[in-house]
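Reply to dn_fold:

You asked what the input looked like. This is it:
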Amino acid sequence: MCLDLIEYFTVDAYQGRKAVRDIHIYYKFIDKGYTGKSDE
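and this is what came back:
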């Protein structure tokens, strides 16, 4: 059921073995993606 709510996702470009990449999840009916980071 959760997979039905996801419209698409993106992964940032690979920049090296130890570099951290962000995964952006875009849900249906929601305008902004979830990146897992807080907006502090």
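The first helix runs from residue 2 to 5.
Hope that clears it up.
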